[in-house]
Structures are given as C-alpha cells and as structure tokens.
Write a structure and sequence with these properties.
The chain is α/β, with parallel strands linked by helices. It folds into 2 domains: about 5-145, Thiolase/Chalcone synthase (Peroxisomal Thiolase, Chain A, domain 1); about 150-295, Thiolase/Chalcone synthase (Peroxisomal Thiolase, Chain A, domain 1), CATH 3.40.47.10. It contains 9 helices and 10 strands. It has helices spanning about 5-10, 25-40, 65-75, 90-105, 125-130, 190-210, 230-235, 250, 260-270, and strands at about 50-55, 80-85, 110-115, 135-145, 150-155, 165, 185, 220-225, 280-285, 290-295. α2 (about 25-40) crosses α3 and α6 runs parallel beside α7 (about 230-235). It is globular. Bound molecules: acetyl coenzyme *A. The site of acetyl coenzyme *A has 23 residues, from α1, α5, α6 and β9.
Length: about 300
C-alpha cells in the first residue's frame, strides 16, 4: 500500500492497533470487557438489570449483541438488553440511554459496553480508511445512587452529512446488488475532520454551561480516539494541557464505540483517574452523531 508509518504517526498519532482473530467476533470482545467490569465492580451477572451495547459491527443482523451477551454472561432475570448504533459517538449514546433508564427508575444496575470489530468493514486497499481503525471493547457499570455520578449527557445528530462517512451497503438495500467496496467504510476524512473539531468544541462548551462549570474544573478529558490532532484541538478549547487528556489512540487506533471506555479503563487502572474527579467524555462519528458526558467518577 502506498503509505508510510511516518505519515500515519504524524497525521493521526496512531502507532499500533489491535485486530480481532479470525474466529473472534464483537460478542467475544464485549464479553471479555463485561467480565472485567463485573469483577471490578464486585457484582454477579444477575445483578445486572440492563445491558446496552454500542456497536456498528454486530455479530449478526439479529439478535443484538446485547441479547447474545446476556446469554453468554448467564443473566437470567429477563431484564432488557439492546444495541445502540451511533458509530464513534455510540458510547456517549449508550451511556446516556442507560443513565436515563436509571434516572427514570427503570433500572438500577446497567452494563454499558462499546464493542467493535471495525476491521471487518474496512477496505484493506483504501489507504484513506484502513490505516485508521482497530478492534476492541470496553465496559462500564452504572448503579443507581444518591451520590453524584453521571452529571449530564448531551447527544446530537445531523443526518445531512451522512455521505461524508458511511458504509453504503446494508440489509435493506441488498448485499448482492451493490458493488463490493460499498460494504466498507468510506470517508471524506478532511471534511469529517473539520466538522469533528467544530462539533466537539461546541458540545464541550454546552456541557460546561449546563453544569455551570468553568473549564478549569474538569480534571480529565476522555475523548473518542480518532486522531491526536482532533483531541489536541478539543483540549486547547478547554485550555487543558495534554497531561490532563487521556490518550490511547497511539495504542488502539480508532476503535469507534469502544474507544472512550477503553481510554477510561486505561486511565482508571493505571491510577491517573481517581474517585471524585470530574471527567468529560466526548465523541464524534458517522451520521453525523456526536455527544458528551460529564461524570463525577
Ligand atoms: N498514507 C499516505 N497518504 C495518505 C493516506 C495514507 N494512509 N491517506 C490519505 N493520504 C493522502 C491523501 O490522499 C492526500 O493526498 P493528496 O494531497 O495528494 O490528495 C493527503 O494524504 C492529505 O489527505 P488529507 O485527507 O487532507 O489528510 P488529513 O491530514 O486530513 O488526514 C485523516 C487524514 C487522518 C483521515 C484525517 O482527515 C482525520 O482524522 N479525519 C477524521 C476522522 C474521524 O474523526 N472520523 C470520525 C470518527 S470515525 C467513525 O465514526 C466511523
């Protein structure tokens, strides 16, 4: 392929990424992340009364990854389980949905997962996309509590830009009549880049305003990991030094809905993020979709 390691590092910040084994699926990655989250929270499977999986690369058309996962984990309490599809903003969407279920009193303990095998929808001959994405999964558990946790979430979409970043193929359009490359990610990277920077800056301002917070009160930015230059632009808007930004794009590439929980997990486990700190999560993806969550960890 006509690309270089230097180009990829310089333009994206990606040094390595992970690709699922041939016999591994999104469900396998989701299950591994879910089991680690249950262990970390000291919970049993049947304590979970809601599963929301953010994914654009489910194992099959149906059942959802969330339903398949419910069975894998041995959750037998008949609680709801479903997928949310908002591409790289998927985790912000799933977190917001679960938070609202808990706020409404419909659920008490939610398992929220971002899981992707994006490698399966890449055209490995398209240098504009195939160097960017990786596979992975991350999970969090939300529990109803009187203590502050998810302080607010903010979701947006603008379908007018669908064709700047999409996989044109689909179930209803018919797989057999479309050209092969339409089964894969197509992106006008430059235009997506400009829009991502603008919309992420707007959602950061919106999140601070709604919570009546000054930017100096945010302890950690945990952004979607698409491109180090997009991340740096958002940090600049917050007057935040890069030492306060959780960056994993060099290790994971863009794992779409999995990138925020993977970054969060990395910084919690290595001790950077501590209890009580304020985290700003944000993501932008195909649709366009974008969103944020302000969390007191
Ligand atoms: N290797 C070498 N050259 C390349 C490669 C590559 N892998 N890919 C593109 N180029 C070339 C282009 O063809 C172009 O060449 P030209 O000037 O001769 O036409 C040149 O590099 C510059 O291309 P740009 O697209 O302007 O490069 P840019 O600096 O914008 O970086 C990138 C491209 C990394 C894709 C960037 O635009 C980006 O990160 N975009 C946003 C991605 C994103 O955030 N997506 C949203 C989430 S993903 C989701 O929701 C699924």
């Amino acid at each position: 392929m006509n690309t270089t390691d230097a180009w990829i590092r310089e333009r994206t910040g990606i040094v390595k990424r992970h690709i699922a084994a041939d016999d591994e699926t999104t469900l396998d990655l989701a299950e591994a992340a879910a089991r680690q989250a249950l262990d970390a929270a000291g919970l049993q499977s049947n304590d979970i009364d809601l599963i929301v999986v953010a994914t654009t690369t489910p194992d099959c058309v149906f059942p959802s990854v969330a339903c398949l996962l419910q069975q894998r984990l041995g959750v037998t309490n008949s609680s709801p389980a479903f997928d949310v599809q908002a591409v790289c903003a998927g985790f912000a969407y799933a977190l917001s949905v679960a938070d609202n279920f808990i706020r409404a009193g419909s659920s008490t303990t939610a398992l929220v997962i971002g899981a992707e095998t994006f490698s399966r929808i890449l055209n490995w001959e398209d240098r504009n996309t195939c160097v960017l994405f990786g596979d992975g999964a991350g999970a969090v558990i939300l529990e109803a509590s009187n203590e502050p946790g998810v302080l607010s979430t903010h979701l947006h979409a603008d379908g007018r830009y669908a064709e700047l970043l999409h996989v044109p193929n689909g179930v209803s359009r018919g797989y057999d009549v479309v050209q092969q490359q339409e089964a894969f990610v197509q992106m006008r990277g430059n235009e997506v880049f400009r829009m991502a920077v603008r919309k992420l800056q707007e959602v950061v301002v919106e999140t601070l305003a709604v919570n009546n917070l000054d930017k100096s009160e945010i302890d950690w930015l945990v952004p979607h990991q698409a491109n180090i230059r997009i991340i740096a632009a958002t940090a600049k808007k917050l007057d935040m030094g890069m030492e306060k930004v959780v960056v994993t794009v060099h290790d994971h590439g863009n794992t779409s809905a999995a990138s925020i929980p993977l970054a969060l997990d990395t910084a919690v486990r290595d001790g950077r993020i501590k209890r009580g700190e304020k985290l700003l999560l944000e993501g932008f993806g195909g649709g366009f979709t974008w969103g944020s969550a302000l969390i007191q960890y």
